[in-house]
Amino acid sequence: MAGYDVAIIGGGIVGVATALALSRDHGFDVVVLEKESALGRHQTGRNSGVVHAGLYYAPGTLKAKLCVEGGRRLVAFCDEHGIPVGRSGKVVVATEPAQLPALAELERRSAANGVPTERLDAAGIAAREPQVTGVAGMWVRETSVVDFSVVAAKYAELATAAGAEIRTGFEVTAVAATPRGHRLESLAGPVEAKIVINCGGLYVDRIAKMMGLDPGLQIVPFRGEYYGLRPERDHLVNGLIYPVPDARFPFLGVHFTRDVYGRVEVGPNAVLATAREGYRRTNFNLRDLTESLRYRGLWALAREYWRTGTAEMWRSIVKRSFVKDANRLIPALTVDDLAEYRAGIRAQAIRPDGSMLHDFAIEETDSAVHVLNAPSPAATASLAIGEHIARIAKGKLAR
Protein backbone atom coordinates (compact mmCIF):
# COMPACT_ATOMS: atom_id res chain seq x y z
CA MET A 1 0.00 0.00 0.00
CA ALA A 2 1.41 3.37 -1.07
CA GLY A 3 2.02 6.05 1.56
CA TYR A 4 2.26 9.78 0.86
CA ASP A 5 2.76 13.03 2.68
CA VAL A 6 -0.44 14.45 1.17
CA ALA A 7 -3.44 12.94 -0.60
CA ILE A 8 -5.65 15.38 -2.51
CA ILE A 9 -9.20 14.22 -3.17
CA GLY A 10 -10.40 15.79 -6.40
CA GLY A 11 -8.65 16.43 -9.69
CA GLY A 12 -10.23 19.72 -10.64
CA ILE A 13 -8.17 22.83 -11.23
CA VAL A 14 -7.88 23.68 -7.51
CA GLY A 15 -6.77 20.14 -6.66
CA VAL A 16 -4.04 20.02 -9.30
CA ALA A 17 -2.91 23.58 -8.53
CA THR A 18 -2.50 22.52 -4.90
CA ALA A 19 -0.57 19.43 -6.00
CA LEU A 20 1.72 21.64 -8.07
CA ALA A 21 2.45 23.95 -5.14
CA LEU A 22 3.06 21.08 -2.72
CA SER A 23 5.31 19.06 -5.03
CA ARG A 24 7.22 21.69 -6.98
CA ASP A 25 7.49 24.47 -4.40
CA HIS A 26 7.64 22.48 -1.16
CA GLY A 27 8.98 19.07 -2.22
CA PHE A 28 6.27 16.93 -0.64
CA ASP A 29 5.23 13.46 -1.79
CA VAL A 30 1.73 14.05 -3.19
CA VAL A 31 -1.00 11.99 -4.82
CA VAL A 32 -4.14 13.36 -6.50
CA LEU A 33 -7.15 11.03 -6.39
CA GLU A 34 -9.78 11.69 -9.06
CA LYS A 35 -12.90 9.55 -9.47
CA GLU A 36 -13.32 10.29 -13.19
CA SER A 37 -11.20 8.81 -15.97
CA ALA A 38 -9.64 12.24 -16.64
CA LEU A 39 -9.01 15.47 -14.76
CA GLY A 40 -11.24 18.53 -14.77
CA ARG A 41 -14.46 16.89 -15.96
CA HIS A 42 -16.82 19.04 -13.89
CA GLN A 43 -16.59 22.69 -12.83
CA THR A 44 -13.10 23.07 -14.36
CA GLY A 45 -14.17 22.02 -17.85
CA ARG A 46 -17.70 23.43 -17.86
CA ASN A 47 -17.37 27.17 -17.42
CA SER A 48 -17.06 30.24 -19.62
CA GLY A 49 -13.27 30.45 -19.24
CA VAL A 50 -13.26 34.00 -17.87
CA VAL A 51 -10.21 35.13 -15.92
CA HIS A 52 -11.88 37.55 -13.53
CA ALA A 53 -10.13 40.77 -12.55
CA GLY A 54 -11.60 40.90 -9.02
CA LEU A 55 -14.14 43.71 -9.12
CA TYR A 56 -17.10 41.85 -7.61
CA TYR A 57 -15.69 40.69 -4.29
CA ALA A 58 -15.88 42.49 -0.97
CA PRO A 59 -12.48 44.01 -0.10
CA GLY A 60 -10.61 42.04 2.52
CA THR A 61 -12.26 38.71 1.69
CA LEU A 62 -10.31 35.66 0.61
CA LYS A 63 -12.03 35.84 -2.79
CA ALA A 64 -10.89 39.41 -3.37
CA LYS A 65 -7.30 38.77 -2.35
CA LEU A 66 -6.80 35.45 -4.15
CA CYS A 67 -8.72 36.43 -7.29
CA VAL A 68 -6.70 39.58 -7.93
CA GLU A 69 -3.38 37.91 -7.14
CA GLY A 70 -4.25 34.63 -8.82
CA GLY A 71 -5.69 36.15 -11.97
CA ARG A 72 -2.60 38.17 -12.73
CA ARG A 73 -0.36 35.20 -12.01
CA LEU A 74 -2.52 32.93 -14.16
CA VAL A 75 -2.16 35.14 -17.21
CA ALA A 76 1.61 35.28 -16.68
CA PHE A 77 1.65 31.48 -16.28
CA CYS A 78 -0.22 31.04 -19.56
CA ASP A 79 2.14 33.38 -21.36
CA GLU A 80 5.13 31.46 -19.96
CA HIS A 81 3.78 28.10 -21.11
CA GLY A 82 2.31 29.11 -24.46
CA ILE A 83 -1.35 28.74 -23.43
CA PRO A 84 -3.61 31.06 -25.46
CA VAL A 85 -5.16 34.00 -23.61
CA GLY A 86 -7.87 36.22 -25.03
CA ARG A 87 -7.29 39.74 -23.71
CA SER A 88 -10.67 41.10 -24.72
CA GLY A 89 -11.55 43.07 -21.59
CA LYS A 90 -15.07 43.34 -20.20
CA VAL A 91 -17.89 45.87 -20.26
CA VAL A 92 -20.22 45.84 -17.24
CA VAL A 93 -23.49 47.54 -18.15
CA ALA A 94 -26.20 49.27 -16.13
CA THR A 95 -29.30 49.04 -18.31
CA GLU A 96 -31.47 51.30 -16.14
CA PRO A 97 -30.92 54.16 -13.67
CA ALA A 98 -31.92 51.97 -10.70
CA GLN A 99 -28.68 49.99 -11.22
CA LEU A 100 -26.38 53.01 -10.93
CA PRO A 101 -25.83 52.65 -7.14
CA ALA A 102 -24.79 49.01 -7.65
CA LEU A 103 -22.45 50.10 -10.46
CA ALA A 104 -20.90 52.67 -8.12
CA GLU A 105 -20.40 49.93 -5.51
CA LEU A 106 -18.56 47.84 -8.09
CA GLU A 107 -16.31 50.82 -8.78
CA ARG A 108 -15.63 51.18 -5.07
CA ARG A 109 -14.78 47.50 -4.70
CA SER A 110 -12.58 47.57 -7.78
CA ALA A 111 -10.58 50.51 -6.46
CA ALA A 112 -10.22 48.91 -3.03
CA ASN A 113 -9.05 45.64 -4.63
CA GLY A 114 -6.53 47.38 -6.88
CA VAL A 115 -8.39 46.64 -10.11
CA PRO A 116 -8.26 49.49 -12.66
CA THR A 117 -11.59 50.37 -14.32
CA GLU A 118 -12.93 53.13 -16.53
CA ARG A 119 -16.42 54.63 -16.22
CA LEU A 120 -18.40 54.65 -19.47
CA ASP A 121 -21.39 56.67 -20.54
CA ALA A 122 -23.82 55.40 -23.18
CA ALA A 123 -21.52 56.55 -25.99
CA GLY A 124 -18.54 54.90 -24.30
CA ILE A 125 -20.42 51.61 -24.10
CA ALA A 126 -21.36 51.84 -27.77
CA ALA A 127 -17.74 52.52 -28.71
CA ARG A 128 -16.70 49.23 -27.07
CA GLU A 129 -19.79 47.17 -27.89
CA PRO A 130 -21.92 48.83 -30.59
CA GLN A 131 -24.91 46.50 -30.14
CA VAL A 132 -25.22 47.10 -26.38
CA THR A 133 -27.60 49.62 -24.86
CA GLY A 134 -27.08 50.98 -21.37
CA VAL A 135 -27.23 54.17 -19.32
CA ALA A 136 -23.71 53.71 -17.90
CA GLY A 137 -21.03 51.10 -17.61
CA MET A 138 -17.51 50.10 -16.64
CA TRP A 139 -14.61 49.02 -18.80
CA VAL A 140 -12.46 46.35 -17.08
CA ARG A 141 -9.31 45.96 -19.13
CA GLU A 142 -7.74 43.18 -17.04
CA THR A 143 -10.50 40.64 -17.69
CA SER A 144 -9.45 37.91 -20.13
CA VAL A 145 -10.39 34.38 -21.23
CA VAL A 146 -8.58 31.04 -21.30
CA ASP A 147 -9.44 27.35 -21.56
CA PHE A 148 -9.22 26.20 -17.95
CA SER A 149 -9.06 22.55 -19.00
CA VAL A 150 -5.80 23.30 -20.82
CA VAL A 151 -4.51 25.22 -17.78
CA ALA A 152 -5.37 22.35 -15.42
CA ALA A 153 -3.64 19.86 -17.72
CA LYS A 154 -0.48 21.97 -17.64
CA TYR A 155 -0.62 22.17 -13.82
CA ALA A 156 -0.91 18.38 -13.74
CA GLU A 157 1.98 17.95 -16.17
CA LEU A 158 4.26 20.19 -14.09
CA ALA A 159 3.17 18.58 -10.82
CA THR A 160 3.92 15.11 -12.24
CA ALA A 161 7.33 16.30 -13.41
CA ALA A 162 7.96 17.49 -9.85
CA GLY A 163 7.16 14.03 -8.47
CA ALA A 164 3.42 14.16 -7.79
CA GLU A 165 1.33 11.14 -8.70
CA ILE A 166 -2.10 11.45 -10.29
CA ARG A 167 -4.57 8.57 -10.10
CA THR A 168 -7.74 8.75 -12.15
CA GLY A 169 -10.58 6.29 -11.74
CA PHE A 170 -9.97 6.46 -7.99
CA GLU A 171 -13.20 7.22 -6.15
CA VAL A 172 -12.69 7.48 -2.41
CA THR A 173 -15.35 5.41 -0.65
CA ALA A 174 -14.16 5.64 2.95
CA VAL A 175 -11.53 7.41 5.04
CA ALA A 176 -10.22 6.05 8.34
CA ALA A 177 -7.75 7.52 10.81
CA THR A 178 -4.46 5.65 11.23
CA PRO A 179 -1.40 6.24 13.43
CA ARG A 180 0.30 7.75 10.36
CA GLY A 181 -2.64 9.91 9.29
CA HIS A 182 -5.40 8.57 7.06
CA ARG A 183 -6.25 5.47 5.07
CA LEU A 184 -8.35 6.19 1.98
CA GLU A 185 -10.32 3.28 0.54
CA SER A 186 -11.50 2.78 -3.02
CA LEU A 187 -12.27 -0.03 -5.44
CA ALA A 188 -8.80 0.62 -6.88
CA GLY A 189 -7.20 -0.19 -3.53
CA PRO A 190 -6.19 1.80 -0.44
CA VAL A 191 -3.88 4.79 -0.08
CA GLU A 192 -2.32 6.16 3.09
CA ALA A 193 -1.31 9.77 3.67
CA LYS A 194 -0.31 11.97 6.58
CA ILE A 195 -2.53 14.84 5.41
CA VAL A 196 -5.72 14.80 3.32
CA ILE A 197 -6.86 17.81 1.32
CA ASN A 198 -10.49 17.65 0.32
CA CYS A 199 -10.99 19.40 -3.02
CA GLY A 200 -14.08 17.33 -3.79
CA GLY A 201 -16.07 20.13 -5.44
CA LEU A 202 -19.62 18.87 -5.88
CA TYR A 203 -19.06 16.24 -3.19
CA VAL A 204 -16.89 18.17 -0.74
CA ASP A 205 -19.54 18.16 1.99
CA ARG A 206 -20.03 14.39 1.77
CA ILE A 207 -16.28 13.80 1.91
CA ALA A 208 -16.00 16.08 4.94
CA LYS A 209 -18.70 14.08 6.72
CA MET A 210 -16.98 10.84 5.69
CA MET A 211 -13.93 12.18 7.57
CA GLY A 212 -15.92 13.08 10.68
CA LEU A 213 -16.32 16.82 10.11
CA ASP A 214 -19.69 18.55 10.31
CA PRO A 215 -19.16 21.29 7.70
CA GLY A 216 -22.11 23.38 8.83
CA LEU A 217 -23.34 23.67 5.24
CA GLN A 218 -24.51 21.59 2.32
CA ILE A 219 -23.60 21.66 -1.35
CA VAL A 220 -26.69 22.35 -3.43
CA PRO A 221 -26.14 21.95 -7.20
CA PHE A 222 -27.30 24.73 -9.51
CA ARG A 223 -27.24 24.10 -13.24
CA GLY A 224 -26.11 26.98 -15.42
CA GLU A 225 -27.25 26.61 -19.03
CA TYR A 226 -25.46 28.29 -21.92
CA TYR A 227 -26.59 29.04 -25.44
CA GLY A 228 -24.17 29.50 -28.31
CA LEU A 229 -24.50 32.47 -30.66
CA ARG A 230 -24.80 31.32 -34.26
CA PRO A 231 -21.61 32.15 -36.23
CA GLU A 232 -23.39 34.47 -38.65
CA ARG A 233 -24.41 36.64 -35.67
CA ASP A 234 -20.98 36.75 -34.01
CA HIS A 235 -20.67 40.41 -34.94
CA LEU A 236 -23.12 41.27 -32.17
CA VAL A 237 -20.40 40.73 -29.55
CA ASN A 238 -16.81 41.97 -29.53
CA GLY A 239 -15.61 40.66 -26.16
CA LEU A 240 -17.24 40.18 -22.75
CA ILE A 241 -20.52 41.88 -21.83
CA TYR A 242 -21.91 41.57 -18.30
CA PRO A 243 -24.91 43.09 -16.53
CA VAL A 244 -24.60 44.76 -13.15
CA PRO A 245 -25.16 41.74 -10.84
CA ASP A 246 -27.62 41.36 -7.99
CA ALA A 247 -25.42 41.61 -4.89
CA ARG A 248 -27.71 39.23 -2.96
CA PHE A 249 -26.50 36.30 -5.04
CA PRO A 250 -23.06 34.93 -5.99
CA PHE A 251 -24.26 34.53 -9.59
CA LEU A 252 -23.34 37.20 -12.15
CA GLY A 253 -26.42 37.08 -14.38
CA VAL A 254 -26.84 36.23 -18.05
CA HIS A 255 -23.85 37.60 -19.96
CA PHE A 256 -22.09 37.34 -23.31
CA THR A 257 -18.63 35.78 -23.56
CA ARG A 258 -16.37 35.45 -26.58
CA ASP A 259 -14.15 32.55 -25.56
CA VAL A 260 -10.50 31.98 -26.36
CA TYR A 261 -11.49 30.04 -29.51
CA GLY A 262 -13.66 32.88 -30.80
CA ARG A 263 -17.02 31.28 -30.02
CA VAL A 264 -19.68 33.44 -28.38
CA GLU A 265 -21.83 31.98 -25.63
CA VAL A 266 -24.75 33.49 -23.76
CA GLY A 267 -25.64 32.57 -20.18
CA PRO A 268 -25.78 31.08 -17.69
CA ASN A 269 -29.01 31.01 -15.80
CA ALA A 270 -29.10 29.31 -12.38
CA VAL A 271 -31.64 26.53 -11.74
CA LEU A 272 -31.74 23.85 -9.07
CA ALA A 273 -30.32 20.67 -10.57
CA THR A 274 -31.92 17.28 -9.88
CA ALA A 275 -28.47 15.66 -9.67
CA ARG A 276 -25.04 16.85 -8.58
CA GLU A 277 -23.87 15.95 -12.06
CA GLY A 278 -27.16 16.91 -13.69
CA TYR A 279 -25.88 18.61 -16.82
CA ARG A 280 -29.05 17.78 -18.74
CA ARG A 281 -32.59 18.65 -17.70
CA THR A 282 -33.40 14.95 -17.85
CA ASN A 283 -30.57 13.87 -15.52
CA PHE A 284 -31.88 12.62 -12.20
CA ASN A 285 -30.27 11.17 -9.10
CA LEU A 286 -32.62 10.13 -6.32
CA ARG A 287 -30.04 10.52 -3.53
CA ASP A 288 -28.92 13.94 -4.72
CA LEU A 289 -32.43 15.33 -5.18
CA THR A 290 -33.72 13.86 -1.91
CA GLU A 291 -30.74 15.31 -0.07
CA SER A 292 -31.41 18.77 -1.53
CA LEU A 293 -35.16 18.69 -0.85
CA ARG A 294 -34.68 17.53 2.74
CA TYR A 295 -32.22 20.32 3.49
CA ARG A 296 -33.82 23.12 5.48
CA GLY A 297 -31.27 25.57 4.14
CA LEU A 298 -32.65 25.17 0.62
CA TRP A 299 -36.22 25.76 1.82
CA ALA A 300 -35.13 28.84 3.75
CA LEU A 301 -33.47 30.17 0.59
CA ALA A 302 -36.57 29.34 -1.48
CA ARG A 303 -38.90 31.15 0.92
CA GLU A 304 -36.80 34.29 0.64
CA TYR A 305 -36.21 34.26 -3.11
CA TRP A 306 -38.97 32.14 -4.63
CA ARG A 307 -39.80 34.78 -7.24
CA THR A 308 -36.20 34.84 -8.46
CA GLY A 309 -36.03 31.04 -8.49
CA THR A 310 -39.29 30.75 -10.41
CA ALA A 311 -38.08 33.24 -13.00
CA GLU A 312 -34.83 31.30 -13.46
CA MET A 313 -36.75 28.05 -14.01
CA TRP A 314 -39.07 29.74 -16.48
CA ARG A 315 -36.07 31.05 -18.47
CA SER A 316 -34.69 27.51 -18.49
CA ILE A 317 -37.90 26.10 -19.96
CA VAL A 318 -38.90 28.94 -22.27
CA LYS A 319 -36.14 30.05 -24.63
CA ARG A 320 -37.98 33.24 -25.56
CA SER A 321 -37.91 34.30 -21.90
CA PHE A 322 -34.16 33.69 -21.78
CA VAL A 323 -33.70 35.85 -24.89
CA LYS A 324 -35.88 38.59 -23.41
CA ASP A 325 -33.51 38.75 -20.45
CA ALA A 326 -30.47 38.90 -22.76
CA ASN A 327 -32.21 41.64 -24.79
CA ARG A 328 -31.67 44.02 -21.89
CA LEU A 329 -28.06 44.12 -23.01
CA ILE A 330 -28.39 43.47 -26.77
CA PRO A 331 -31.85 44.37 -28.13
CA ALA A 332 -31.00 43.02 -31.61
CA LEU A 333 -30.67 39.44 -30.33
CA THR A 334 -33.44 37.08 -31.50
CA VAL A 335 -34.55 33.59 -30.54
CA ASP A 336 -33.19 32.23 -33.82
CA ASP A 337 -29.72 33.62 -33.04
CA LEU A 338 -29.15 31.11 -30.23
CA ALA A 339 -28.52 27.37 -30.31
CA GLU A 340 -28.34 25.14 -27.25
CA TYR A 341 -24.71 24.75 -26.29
CA ARG A 342 -23.82 23.20 -22.92
CA ALA A 343 -24.34 23.41 -19.18
CA GLY A 344 -22.29 23.39 -16.02
CA ILE A 345 -23.05 22.73 -12.38
CA ARG A 346 -22.11 25.20 -9.67
CA ALA A 347 -21.36 23.58 -6.31
CA GLN A 348 -23.03 26.20 -4.14
CA ALA A 349 -22.57 25.97 -0.38
CA ILE A 350 -25.67 26.92 1.59
CA ARG A 351 -25.92 27.25 5.37
CA PRO A 352 -28.88 25.83 7.32
CA ASP A 353 -30.37 29.35 7.63
CA GLY A 354 -30.58 29.61 3.83
CA SER A 355 -27.67 32.00 3.34
CA MET A 356 -25.32 31.29 0.46
CA LEU A 357 -21.60 31.51 1.10
CA HIS A 358 -20.12 34.39 -0.89
CA ASP A 359 -16.48 33.87 0.10
CA PHE A 360 -14.15 30.93 -0.32
CA ALA A 361 -14.43 28.64 2.71
CA ILE A 362 -11.47 26.51 3.82
CA GLU A 363 -11.85 24.47 7.02
CA GLU A 364 -9.00 22.80 8.87
CA THR A 365 -8.75 19.86 11.23
CA ASP A 366 -5.56 18.44 12.75
CA SER A 367 -4.65 16.41 9.69
CA ALA A 368 -6.96 17.61 6.94
CA VAL A 369 -7.93 20.66 4.92
CA HIS A 370 -11.44 20.93 3.45
CA VAL A 371 -12.11 23.37 0.60
CA LEU A 372 -15.81 23.71 1.37
CA ASN A 373 -16.72 26.55 -0.98
CA ALA A 374 -14.69 27.32 -4.08
CA PRO A 375 -16.95 28.19 -7.02
CA SER A 376 -16.09 31.01 -9.44
CA PRO A 377 -13.58 32.70 -9.38
CA ALA A 378 -11.69 29.65 -8.04
CA ALA A 379 -10.33 28.75 -11.48
CA THR A 380 -9.06 32.31 -11.92
CA ALA A 381 -7.49 32.22 -8.45
CA SER A 382 -6.25 28.62 -8.71
CA LEU A 383 -2.51 29.29 -8.42
CA ALA A 384 -3.04 31.54 -5.41
CA ILE A 385 -5.54 29.15 -3.80
CA GLY A 386 -3.20 26.22 -4.36
CA GLU A 387 -0.35 28.03 -2.63
CA HIS A 388 -2.65 29.14 0.20
CA ILE A 389 -3.71 25.54 0.84
CA ALA A 390 -0.16 24.26 0.45
CA ARG A 391 1.06 26.63 3.18
CA ILE A 392 -1.63 25.31 5.53
CA ALA A 393 -0.66 21.70 4.75
CA LYS A 394 3.04 22.48 5.19
CA GLY A 395 2.33 23.81 8.67
CA LYS A 396 0.53 20.60 9.59
CA LEU A 397 3.32 18.39 8.25
CA ALA A 398 5.91 20.36 10.24
CA ARG A 399 4.27 19.51 13.56
What does this protein look like?
This protein has 399 residues and is α+β, with helices and mostly antiparallel strands. Helices cover 32% and strands 26% of the residues. The protein has 10 helices and 19 strands. The chain has helices spanning 13-25, 62-81, 100-113, 122-128, 148-161, 204-210, 286-293, 296-317, 319-326, 382-397; strands spanning 2-9, 30-34, 50-51, 90-94, 118-121, 136-140, 144-145, 165-168, 174-178, 181-185, 191-198, 218-229, 240-243, 255-258, 264-267, 271-272, 338-350, 361-365, 368-373. Helix 1 (13-25) runs parallel beside helix 5 and helix 8 (296-317) packs across helix 9 (319-326). The protein is globular and about 65 Å long.
**Beta strand %:** 25-35%
- Principal-axes geometry comes out as globular
Summed up, the helix count is: 10
Model regions low in confidence, pLDDT < 50 over at least 5 residues: none
| Residues in helices, as a percent range | 25-40%
Major sheet details: 9 strands, mixed
Helix and strand succession?
EHEEHEHEHEEHEEEEHEEEEEHHHEEEH
Brief synopsis:
This protein has 399 residues and is an alpha+beta fold. Helices cover 32% and strands 26% of the residues.
